[in-house]
Design a protein that fits this description.
about 50% helix, 5 helices, three-stranded mixed β-sheet
């Protein structure tokens, strides 16, 4: 049987029942860590970080997400330099792994008529498909582009 809770997420996270080791305690800790990490990244005057959000940080590994496909290649190019720069800050002193993942998060609830891929994303996917050798991935990208082109 499923219980219906009327408590908000904030109330749940701040609950006295929220004991160390519990799932809610772990979620709260990770959320606070992500917010702190995002604040620390603001200290660096690196424009790329303005287009990313922190997904995960555990002291050694930092995972960021972006909606801009071109940033993936830039981060690969600059990964060692970015890690070295971040290591200059006490908060990131043990950082050894930096990853950037591509996500497309809906800005609003989209009905089927509103599900439209931005032109920049379509162009990025077309360029990506041209460079790929894997036929299945190319086919999947082309199907995605066709789907969004007809809507």
């Amino acid at each position: 049987m499923i219980r219906k809770y009327s408590a908000s997420v904030t109330e749940l996270l701040n609950s006295r029942k929220n004991k160390k080791g519990s799932l809610l305690h772990t979620i709260k800790q990770q959320h606070e860590l992500i917010k702190t990490t995002e604040q620390k990244l603001l200290y660096f005057d690196i424009p790329y970080f303005n287009h990313t959000k922190v997904c995960f940080y555990n002291g050694k590994k930092l995972v960021l997400k972006t909606e801009i496909p071109e940033l993936i290649a830039k981060f690969r190019e600059l990964k060692k330099d970015l890690i070295a720069l971040l290591n200059t800050n006490e908060y990131f002193k043990d950082l050894s792994t930096l990853e950037l993942v591509l996500v497309f998060e809906p800005k609003q609830k989209a009905s089927s008529s509103e599900a439209h891929m931005p032109n920049s994303a379509q162009t990025a996917f077309k360029n990506l498909a041209k460079t790929l050798e894997d036929g299945q991935i190319k086919h999947a990208i082309n199907n995605l582009l066709k789907k969004h082109h007809h809507e």
